[in-house]
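The material for today's practical consists of a large collection of protein records. There is nothing in a record beyond a sequence line and a structure line. As an example, a complete record with its sequence and its structure tokens follows:
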Amino acid sequence: MRQQLVVAAFCLIALPSGRAADYPSRQITFIVPFAVGGPLDSIARTFAPRMSSLLGVPIVVENIAGAGGSLGVGRVVQASPDGYTVGVGNWSTHVLNGEIYKLNYNLISDLAPIVRLPGSPQVLVSRKDHPARNLAELTGWLKQNRATMGTAGVGSAGHVSALFFEKRIGVQLTLAHYRGAGPAMADLIGSHIDLLFEQSATALPQVRSGTIKPFAVTRATRLPSAPDIPTADEAGLKDFQVSVWNGLWAPKGTPDAVIAKLNSAARQVLADPALRDQWTNIGMDIPAAEDTGPAALAALQEAEIAKWWPVLTAAKIKAE
């Protein structure tokens, strides 16, 4: 009888491991919490086919936009913790939203970090026909004219940057909140709005094609791939540095072995020399190998929450 109990207990313990050993056996879904065409969507669509090839199953990208990305993250939280639903998020969705929105989930305890992905500084850009030639001229123009600045949604990195920008230069902007950076960029290119804080990954290709105009990059040093764009410090916005890092998360309770398989596949993609050159060319910052483990992403997220939530509280930034 005792031997039967031991065998039964072993089987119960081994069951989750067995399931993880069979993982993956069907399609995986990447949830992007913004509209198609933005920088986070581009990251997801870069990693999905390459990780699919490594894991041997299809990976589809599903866009669930709204409420600054909190709706899409909520979908991941509610999913089964089996590794078949993976959230693609960033500094905005997994740090800022926790203070800006009244979430019905906890960004730390309800999600399992998988891997940190390449991130981007932001670039302050305008419609191509804007009369200002540099940030000093832009600031003067804004003090004389009413301007519309787009954002990827309430609580997005661009929204927070826009609010800090308003306070720093002493102007009030008309903020137009979109359901992602893609639609906002489209309206900037069409000259329907005046300004945008956009990640370098999506801003630089448009800058190079001449469809928008750059003023400053929110980085301590100039981008090697865009040395003509001054840093915010150089342009007159002292200590205005914002880096939007990205990552993958799973629902809490996802087996460690499943997390490890997803992490391994993502790290193989991160090591691809051609992709690294491509990311560097559009101004993205690639995390060091030691920063790509689940524990490293968890530590980064917690540190950023400790840093930014008091700032957001002091600035009284809340979802409308």
Q: What stands out?
A: The CA atoms of residues 10 and 160 lie 51 Å apart.
